[in-house]
Amino acid sequence: MKDLKTALGDNAKAVNRVLDDLLVMSGGPESRVVEAMRYTALSGGKRIRPFLVTASADLFNVNKTSALRVAAAVEMIHCYSLIHDDLPAMDNDDLRRGQPTCHIQFDEATAILAGDALLTKAFEVVAGEETHDSSTVRAELTLALAKASGEAGMVGGQMLDLVAEDHELNMPEVTRLQRMKTGALIAVSCEAGAILGKASKNAHHVLHAYAHDIGLAFQIADDLLDVEGDEKEVGKKTGKDAAAGKATFVSLLGVERAREQAQLLADQAASHLDIFEEKAKLLKDLAHYVVNRTA
Amino acid sequence: MKDLKTALGDNAKAVNRVLDDLLVMSGGPESRVVEAMRYTALSGGKRIRPFLVTASADLFNVNKTSALRVAAAVEMIHCYSLIHDDLPAMDNDDLRRGQPTCHIQFDEATAILAGDALLTKAFEVVAGEETHDSSTVRAELTLALAKASGEAGMVGGQMLDLVAEDHELNMPEVTRLQRMKTGALIAVSCEAGAILGKASKNAHHVLHAYAHDIGLAFQIADDLLDVEGDEKEVGKKTGKDAAAGKATFVSLLGVERAREQAQLLADQAASHLDIFEEKAKLLKDLAHYVVNRTA
To answer: Least buried of A185, B182, B203, B214, by fewest C-beta within 10 Å?
Structure first.
């Protein structure tokens, strides 16, 4: 079996090929928006969410084309959220994945539209016949992705984050915010594999538990990187949370306890997958990778 | 049979009830985004697109709940596009349907998120089991809606509109722009009835032809209102196109020929529906209504 680093790299390349195929410039002047979609969607990144899709799909022997299309759709949703999150009216960030953000490279209006179109495209891809023979699976995937991304998931989390600027959050509030803002899309990435593979209820449940723990661990690691990370390596501005006076896992727990907590969650995430035995090795390794990454 | 005015009014009320049910405030601080979604989605408007869904669904005796959910989803997509289109980086409008636009009433960040969440919610609603017994129908609706709304449809049209600010468009270019920007969502509204009703290929084709003509007629009427309409009655700023030096059907054809062209298209739209006989009366009347409206 491949080691995690190779598997992550191979998966990123495969997802990029699918994204490249799906984001087609028509040639008309409106292609500018596709150019902006491609700029962000093909800009690199670790592709952890798409990896969660394909690795969880592998547990159920889902065919590669299906898994990669859904992985690409999830990455489109992630990228749309980055583009909108970086806008001047939101986080006002100039740098992302080591490159100028979409509205800096193009302009604000184009960035808004590119985000909108990536979100829309994700649903087009998931609902398309090429994604799965079963329309039930396609409808279920659409529903799960929409729920995870909308006002009760990712967008709701972003709203919470904005509202939180006016009052300091406590631990349960920060946890809820992160479960919505980043956790929901991570969870649906794992769930997608189970949906594609028509997995048992128990398998769904186990993957959900894994996703929950890995999502929180991932976020704590992100908070740690914002405090301790190297800006060049991380590829975006660091020290932002402290500067904004934002409550994070690190500001609430301190660096040491936050790191311990992340490790604990990673262990716990991995242990959920014991029922899959050797097959889940990459997903288990990923749990530890996300807390020990430096970018 | 009801007359068109009564049917439009009844339909608007029914769609509003469904929107009211679907856009639920969770009670948490993130409810602010739902408040903004509701502010725009429940702010009135003629509800022509939802009417196209329910009236075309009626041609095939689709059950009301199915049709109204899809109608609500289409209205959500329309409203999201209004919210984002009104943003300072886009058209920078303060007034919409006679009320402050979403970013004026709330703030820019909330408006961006509310648009994102409405778009997402539309797919959640369409893919939901309550929408139709057949998952094939649900997946097909998702696909059609996404295609109409994305980079090759509505968003592409908005991009064209922005790019057009730098050079004057000719008649074929204006027609293409409007087919994408407003025509695609109008077309899919009619198509949705046929999908819900598992209609024949021919019925699909006929509704598509109707939608195409009514879409252009609608846009010409919009351009005429921008020149001749009363700001209070129209509910948004008028004279914008001329002030921006934008090529429109009216600037290219002149008022008289534009009006003639709109009437011609309305007649043509109605005649496509002859195969449905009396059943299509409301849709035929609508074709004439959209070109003669004063708001």
So the answer is: B203
Backbone angles phi, psi at B99, to 5 degrees: -125, 160
Residue A261's SS3 state is: helix
- Contact in structure between A233 and A295 (CB atoms under 8 Å): yes
Asked whether the predicted pLDDT for residue B175 surpasses 80, the reply is yes
Across-strand partners of A173? none
CB contact under 8 A, A116 and B157: no
Instruction: Tell me the residue length of chain B.
Output: 295
The region, left, alpha or beta by phi > 0 then psi within -120 to 50, assigned to residue B245 is: left
- What is the distance between the alpha carbons of residues B70 and A256, in angstroms, rounded to a whole number? 51
Which residue would you say has higher pLDDT here, B27 or B71?
A: B71
Phi/psi of residue B44, nearest 5 degrees: 95, -140
Query: Which parts of chain A sit beneath pLDDT 70?
Result: 1, 234
Any CB–CB contact under 8 A between A112 and chain B? yes
Residue B90 with chain A: CB contacts under 8 Å: 109, 112
Name residues 121-180 of chain A within 8 A of B (Cβ).
121, 123-124, 126-128, 134-136, 138-140, 142-143, 145-147, 149-152, 155-160, 162-164, 176, 180
Q: Where are the alpha helices (DSSP H) in chain B?
A: 4-22, 31-41, 48-58, 64-86, 102-105, 108-127, 135-149, 154-163, 171-178, 184-196, 201-228, 231-234, 240-243, 249-253, 255-272, 281-292
> Is A90 near chain B, with CB under 8 Å?
yes
**ipTM value of the model?**
0.95
A279 vs A266: CA distance, rounded Å: 18
Distance from CA of A145 to the nearest CA of B (A): 8
> B159 and A90 in contact by Cβ < 8 A?
no
Residue whose token pair is 């035929």? B284
**Which pTM does this prediction carry?**
0.95
Token couple for B207: 């509704």
Q: How near does any CA of chain A get to the CA of B270, in Å?
A: 31
CB contact under 8 A, B120 and A157: no
Cβ neighbours of A167 (radius 10 Å): 10
CB A269 within 8 A of CB A213: yes
CB proximity B76 to A under 8 Å:
no
User: Per-residue pLDDT for B46 more than 90?
Assistant: no
CA dist A22 and A75 (Å) reads: 12
Which parts of chain A are beta strand (E)?
95-96, 99-100
For residue A99, what are the β-bridge partners?
A96
CB contact under 8 A, B120 and A115: no
- In angstroms, what separates the C-alpha of B13 from chain A's closest C-alpha? 24
Q: Does B116 touch chain A (CB under 8 A)?
A: yes
Query: CB of A166 within 8 A of CB of A213?
Result: no
* CA distance, residue A3 to nearest chain B CA (Å): 36
Over residues A90-102, the pLDDT tens digits come to 999 999 888 999 9
Of B66, B47, B58, give the one whose Cα is nearest residue B281.
B58
Going from the N-terminus, what domains does chain B have, and what CATH number goes with each? 4-292 (1.10.600.10)
**Do the chains contact at A155 and B89, CB–CB below 8 Å?**
no
Which residues of chain B does A147 touch, with a Cβ-Cβ cutoff of 8 Å? 124
